[in-house]
Design a protein that fits this description.
This protein is about 10% helix and about 45% strand. By secondary structure, it is mainly β. It is globular.
């Protein structure tokens, strides 16, 4: 039986033999990006993930199917916090045209020079987006303007090119 998660975003999770199928029904509030649990502060989108440094989060699960990219992020607890339930969030990209994952140490020193603040943030300009524009045909088939977003965790950085801002939902 599907499990219902409360909030602006109702997600029904069903297990199948090959995939975790995520069916989403989005009730969009009239905020700037149409995002469920996020608030615009200054020049960047603040999410509940920003309660900690990126080094306190780890990528628990990574699902991709038909341009729906779902990342499960879990809070890393210290030894004295082990009796608590860690916080978990789904980071959902509904239209992921391109993504890459690499170890947090595998980046250049200036990887965040044009990146907004936060664990989950958008790049104002990026070499990855320039590469996709000049060396692939992804833009020929993509609908709308692509943006470069990244999620930083203690072990992985996930980069996503999408035409919609991601949604962050608490599943704790």
């Amino acid at each position: 039986m599907p499990a219902k998660i409360e909030g602006c975003l109702d997600i029904y999770l069903e297990l199948s033999s090959q995939y975790l199928i995520i069916t989403y029904l989005v009730t969009v509030r009239s905020d700037l990006y149409g995002r469920a649990d996020n608030k615009l502060l200054g020049n960047y989108m603040k999410t509940e993930l920003d309660a900690h440094s990126y080094q306190k989060w780890f990528l628990e699960n990574f699902q991709y199917r038909d341009r729906l990219l779902t990342l499960t992020v879990e809070e890393s607890l210290r030894l004295e916090e082990q009796l608590q339930e860690p916080k978990r969030y789904l980071v959902i990209f509904k239209s992921a045209e391109f993504f890459q994952v690499y170890d947090e140490c595998g980046h250049r020193n200036d990887f965040n020079s044009d990146r907004e603040q936060g664990v989950l943030a958008k790049y104002n300009s990026s070499r990855l987006l320039d590469h996709v524009k000049s060396d692939t045909i992804i833009l020929d088939k993509a609908v709308g303007k692509l943006e470069h977003w990244s999620l930083m965790t203690t072990n992985e950085f996930v980069h996503v090119l999408t035409n919609e801002a991601p949604i962050v939902v608490s599943v704790t």
